Fold this protein.
Amino acid sequence: MTLEAKNLTFRYPRQKGPSPLKGVSLSLSSGERLGLSAPSGQGKTTLCRLLAGWERPNSGQVLLDGVPLARHRGFCPVQLLWQHPEEAVDPLLKLGTTLREAGPADRAVLDALGVQDSWLERFPSELSGGELQRICVARAMRPGLRFLLCDEVSAMLDLITQARLWRFLLDQAQARGLGLLVVSHDSALLEKVCQRVVSWEELSR
Amino acid sequence: MNRRRSTLILLVLACALLLAVTLAGGLLADGAASADFTRKNLPPCFAFPFGTDWMGRDMLKRTLAGLSLSIRIGALTAALSGAVALALGAASAAFGGWVDALISWIIDLVMGIPHILLIILISIACGRGLWGVTAGVALSHWTSLARLVRGEVLQLCRTPYFRMAQRLGVSRKRLFCSHLLPHLLPQLLIGLMLQFPHAILHEASVTFLGFGLSSERPAIGNILEESMAYLAAGRWWLALLPGLSLVGVVMIFALAGERLRLLLAPASAQE
């Protein structure tokens, strides 16, 4: 499978100034691990939102195997791991409910991530960012998942948890043939986990 | 005892008092209408704390019956306008585009007309009486709540967890029930509670002006309107005591709504 972005241009409603995204193209295939680094404020997160179908581009297309991503109903094969896990879970729901939102959770995945059962009985405000991020990762690991967009997923974690999380993501990518887009400021991390690293200029050429 | 608990106790007391007035008024409705010319025009005394009128009717019973009617109309209108506000506010935010523009325009339109004028117009159009007043108050009081709901839904739909749930394939119904409703409920409850005083006062004023409930009903507006003729004759208790009771009930409702807001709004939960 391939995830393709063709000439994306996007501006938030009522946003002033130049578009954060202008003519951005990108292609990612299954099993590929692509790194993206760019200075702050260039629109990396906006690009991820478009690729995951959170927003519709003003012009250009996001295609999954040639079919527009917006046509997908049900579980979207492209999932975004949000930079701030505490914003990605409903503060009023227990985490068990949040985790099972897309369907029953996979025991092996929970064990591999070190998610404890007691966490699932709590509310988001009672867990740390790292614990929440692991629950978010587990939630996205559905059988239908094909592409995972990791937007600074490990920036808030300590080094050991960071290493564990990446070990898990790389293993899963390998086993399931997932395509990963890794967005980070940390060039050492990108060198380590990605097969190829592109800069922002190369995307918007 | 912490602040939260004393707030809760005040809230429960206020609600209990209002419930008691409602029940007592409902039970006394028959007694309120019975006339006895042997005891007419009595000033407040031990047997008749609110005095009696020119037909010898017990003013305390009439006042309680009137307040009870007011509270019941208030409950009905609050429920109706709450439902309208939730439906229109959510539809406005969820569909966007021309639906949003149309609903926002209607909200502005209704807000732009003075409440009392709109209530009188709707009440007359609906044939006055109980249903006229209820329709009038309900159809004029949903706007600010609808605007609030619209803003909240717009904001909630943009949160990452809502977007995430959408892309995880959660159905529309579940999105609404688990991600929108629990967040809207506190605002909605507080809005409804604070709607009561408005509804009661407007019901009383429309009835007072003669466009509301029919004159044989023991409504506060009717009691006040009738007593106007006797004020000059020195029968002060006919207007003063029912009027003060109305103010009291309205204040208790405002107080209860305020306590509820303090309890439910996260930022002030410990104040």
